[in-house]
Amino acid sequence: MSAVGIPTVMLALPLFYGQARRIREGVMAHVDRHGGWRLVECDLEQAASRPEVFTGVDAVITWTGGDTGWMKGLDARGLPVVNCMDDPPAVPGISRVATEWPSLARLVVAHFKDLGLEHAAYLERRIGTGSSRHHRLKALREITREAGITCHGHELRAHAWPGTAPAADEHKVADFLRALPKPCGVLCEDDPAAVRVLEIAARHGLRVPSDLAVVGQGNRLIGRTGRPALTTIVPPGEEIGLKAAEVLSERMAGRLPPGGLWLLPCTDLLIRDSTQTAAADPALERAWRLFDRRVLEGITVQELAAAAGVSTKTLVKRFGTRFGIDPAGEIRRRRTEEAKRLLAETDTPVAEIGRRCGFPSPSNFFNFFRRNTGASPTDFRRSFAR
């Protein structure tokens, strides 16, 4: 306690990170509203390595998942500490205020559902069963299952990102991405990881967002700049800062015991180019992805309109405005081109080619192909055999 009787609260935050800065704003808002504290700041590295910086400090708010020895020392001295990191190592006596991760997963899965995706993947370091973060993949799998989406998880080693790893490690990530059913939503552990997934996808011929709709976490500068701009979850930073200050105030007043965990929901998703095509319209995006996925099955314009929740006339108009195509004409064109490719480049039987292009019987395929090319499938194939 200072000489004038005002408690001194230290903010030991890595202000390089946007989330730490938002937590700081929340704490300051609490002090502006209620007063009664003197705030001081200390770089997180100093907090961990120089115990003398806590001389005269009455309590601490931090955001760290690293070395916890200094926090244990403060707790042993009776100083209340609140850690705002989502998944730090457990330290008895340290209070925690963090993001409720299932709410984040629900937000992302709802977005993937709006996009008409049937598959989702999660990429993060240390998601094995022995990790404190395994609960994230488990929660995501439960939430995707409820939404009718299949979830795929991939654990990345700590060095497995481009720029910090051998090329072989990048290829492990690329192999995982290539093996995913397309199109697929991809949630990454943070924005830098998501940006590197974008880079890997570009280098290995994977289209974003057509093949992979990529989402990060944190709303950091690296995701807002560059192309494509990154869709990202905005964690509740200011809200966490406010709650951390409230918890600390109650602990300092003796109304709360040491420890405790408070989780705050995620509510903000910033949609950018990494998950959004030219449609910029979730209903039209659903229809477009369904079209792209099932065009060779003979999907109808009526089915596309139902997926978008609009009339057939409205869907045709929106497809023309947004994509510059007539959906019925594009369905015919793609089926015809695929049939021509298979007839010219493979020995696949004509009846099988018809099935692959969505025709229930050989006669349906024969009539469709002759109507759109002027030749029968057999005659078309013979013309390439000469």
Automatic annotation (TrEMBL):
Keyword presence, DNA-binding: yes
Domain of life: Bacteria
InterPro entries: Homeodomain-like_sf, HTH_AraC, LacI/GalR-like_sensor, Peripla_BP_I, Tscrpt_reg_AraC-type_HTH
UniProt keyword Transcription regulation present: yes
Key words of the record: DNA-binding, Transcription, Transcription regulation
Annotated ranges, domain HTH araC/xylS-type: 285-383
Any one GO molecular function term: transcription cis-regulatory region binding
Protein name: Substrate-binding domain-containing protein
